[in-house]
């Protein structure tokens, strides 16, 4: 299931992040790809230890911690520190599946990748191509969201980023280990929680149907 989460960052916040990111020390992203992905990856990334990446990544995680839709959808146990990538000049990332386990650099902590997240940091009008294409039960779904919006998808899905033929696509990406490993169970809890949230707008909080849900 793909879950878009709109407005994780405001337009002003995106602009502040971009001012920092656009002057940051971008590096060839090939070095951090797995052995299979290395052949299909062509983009730039910030080093994990880059102070800009660390500071902005922490700010994103803090924001997510207070975002009810994210909490409800992901039920996060661990969040991998956000990484940043940039695609321009034909940059692309061919079909791949993210690694099942990610070790947090410089720590003994590992994260089981239940969910992958992409937080878009460029307006869709600012670049051509650069769609995140995710394969799911209903075929390939292209995702290209507004700056400040994020998509969550199962880390086991085959996905790719189509070549950027104009402008630059900048994004943050990271992984989440959920407290509920099974996607079906997690999605059921999400549906129930969303129904409760929606009904609370129209029914009193002690309504028997809400209590039952
Ligand atoms: Ni990926």
Helix content: 25-40%
What percentage of the residues does DSSP assign to strands (E)?
25-35%
Cofactors and ligands present?
A: nickel (II) ion
Write down the overall mean pLDDT: 94
Sheet with most strands = 9 strands, antiparallel
The total strand number stands at 16
| Euclidean distance between termini CA atoms | 22 Å
3D shape: globular
Question: Which properties best describe this structure?
Answer:
213 residues; alpha+beta; five-stranded antiparallel beta sheet; 5 helices; 34% strand; binds nickel (II) ion
Description:
This protein is of the alpha+beta class. 26% of the residues lie in helices and 34% in strands. It has five helices and 16 strands. It has helices at 11-22, 51-65, 68-74, 183-199, 208-212; strands at residues 3-5, 27-28, 41-42, 44-45, 76-79, 83-88, 92-96, 101-103, 110-112, 115-120, 127-129, 132-136, 139-143, 150-154, 159-161, 164-178. The strands form three sheets. Strands 1, 2, 4, 5, 6, 10, 11, 14 and 16 form a nine-stranded antiparallel beta sheet that branches. A five-stranded antiparallel beta sheet has the order 3-7-15-12-13, with no helix packed on it. β8 (101-103) and β9 (110-112) form a beta hairpin. α3 (68-74) packs antiparallel against α4 (183-199). The longest helix is centred in the last third of the chain and has 17 residues, at 183-199. It is globular, with a radius of gyration of 18 Å. The relative contact order is 0.20. The model has no long low-confidence stretch (mean pLDDT 94). Nickel (II) ion binds next to loops. The site of nickel (II) ion (NI) has 3 residues, from loops.
């Amino acid at each position: 299931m793909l879950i878009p989460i709109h407005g994780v960052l405001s337009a002003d916040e995106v602009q502040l992040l971009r001012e920092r990111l656009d002057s940051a020390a971008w590096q060839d992203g090939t070095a951090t790809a797995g052995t299979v992905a290395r052949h299909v990856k062509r983009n730039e990334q910030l080093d994990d230890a880059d102070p800009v990446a660390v500071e902005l990544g922490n700010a994103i995680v803090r924001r997510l911690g207070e975002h009810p839709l994210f909490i409800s959808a992901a039920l996060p146990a661990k969040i991998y520190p956000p990484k940043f990538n940039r695609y321009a000049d034909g940059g692309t990332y061919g079909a791949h599946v993210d690694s099942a386990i990610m070790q947090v650099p410089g720590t003994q902590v590992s994260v089981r990748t239940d969910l992958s997240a992409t937080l878009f940091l460029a307006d869709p009008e600012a670049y051509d191509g650069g769609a995140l294409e995710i394969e799911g039960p209903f075929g390939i779904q292209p995702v290209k969201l507004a700056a400040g919006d994020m998509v969550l998808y199962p880390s086991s899905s085959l996905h790719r980023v189509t070549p950027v033929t104009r402008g630059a696509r900048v994004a943050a990406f990271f992984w989440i280990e959920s407290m509920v490993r099974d996607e079906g169970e997690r999605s059921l809890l999400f549906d129930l929680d969303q129904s409760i949230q929606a009904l609370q707008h129209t029914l009193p909080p002690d309504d028997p149907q809400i209590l039952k849900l």
